[in-house]
Write a structure and sequence with these properties.
Blueprint (H helix, E strand, L loop, with lengths): L1 H19 L2 E7 L8 E5 L6 E2 L18 E7 L5 E6 L7 E6 L9 E3 L12 E8 L4 E9 L17 E8 L9 E4 L5 E9 L2 E8 L8 E7 L20 E8 L2 E8 L4 E7 L7 E2 L11 E8 L1 H8 L1
Antiparallel strand pairs: 1-2, 1-19, 2-3, 4-5, 5-6, 6-7, 8-9, 9-10, 10-11, 12-13, 13-14, 15-16, 16-17, 17-18
Length: 308
Amino acid sequence: MKKIWMVILLIGVIKAATAQDSIYIFSYFKDNGQDGLHLAYSEDGYTWKELGNGRSYLQPTAGKDKLMRDPCVIRGADGLFHMVWTVSWNEKGVGYASSPDLLHWSSQQDIPVMEHEPGALNCWAPEITYDARNNAYMIYWATTIPGRFPAGDTSGDDKYNHRLYYVTTKNFKQFTPARVLYDQGFNVIDATIIPDNNRYVMFLKDETRKPPQKNIRIAVSNKLTKGYGKPSAPITGQYWAEGPTVLKRGKEWIVYFDKYTQGSYGAVRSEDNGKTWSDISDKLTMPKGLRHGTVVAITREEFDKLKD
């Protein structure tokens, strides 16, 4: 029994040390995404500094337009970093690459997730969430297919009336057919999903233009790929916000987002598992030109190699 308690104590110490040694990396793009992947780092989640004097860490080659917008990076169950991104404003695929260290990347893939839909206009802001229950990855994004969802066709920006779609994969070579992930009768983009105990929490952008919304909301499900209900009230304020990403540290959740009409970044924080939110935008320091990205934690050893 004493040995068992010693092992439990040791595991607790290791976890605490790992948490204390974590460095947070923000993957993002600049301008139109033409020069690829940019990285910033932070030790506290509030003050972010650009890495490599603002240089690109990966030049885009996937897709016809060869853009790298909205890069989403996660650490997979295999220990690799997996990244997806928007390759174009109007193509039917998403970009994918993997890396052991955020420096050396695999060949870039253009995954044709919506090629089977002749009327599809785009594939925007893809993200990945790991499904531990099924040992698989879910890639999800926003697409407009004119006429597919009449509700909301006249409330968006010009021709766009998005819904969220997804595929799953175990190896990033074979993918399930694309299916609808979220349709609650309104124009929606920029979803990011985090596991939280026995549920999944989706942060999304209500893209409704008429009447204006353009805010971040929450939907919850007990299954990763379905069951997300009506969205919450907005967790962001009286400004247009998009591209949410979440840093979850115990009971503290920080949701970062792009105040794109103001050319700045904002954040809200919850300390009760997402029940109430406070604006902490005035506490943030972000690199100039940072656009829609994601946060991932790495070890200090990994950070030292990345920095050097």
